[in-house]
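Re: beginner question about structure tokens

> Can someone show what the tokenized structure looks like for a real chain? I only ever see the sequence side.

Sure, here's an example I had lying around. Input first:
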Amino acid sequence: MIRVIRGGIVALAVALFSSAALAQSVVTQGAGQSLGSKPWRVDIGAQNGGKTTEVAVTNSAGGTATPATCLAQRKAIELQNNGPNTIYCTVDGTAPLVSSNGRWILSGAAWSLDAGCNVVITCISATAAQISGAATMVTELK
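And the corresponding structure tokens:
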């Protein structure tokens, strides 16, 4: 942590923690500011790994499993729709329908949720199937 003290003297304090039992660490927002910085709690469990994959959501009946296989011990997932069309998703494994069931994710929007592998996410594209480079990015965290 760097702290500016009156008179322009800079003090540098470094703390090392050897305990692996720490449940959380703190990130200071606005580092270097003397006023207005607030601690931001970060769950250390989020540092246990993850995976990002591209999924081309189809517009075919039945939809697309998103992702095709779940990251073992997944705790959270985010879907970012980089395709040109809205996609519709369900969380119970049922086939999404554009007109009635399914959470819609607009083009350029994202949806994040705490969901383990027992939550089966299935999506369908509104008008045309997505293609590589313009598909849905799926990020999973353990």
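Each token stands for a local structural state, so reading them left to right follows the chain. The chain has two domains: 2-44, 49-141.
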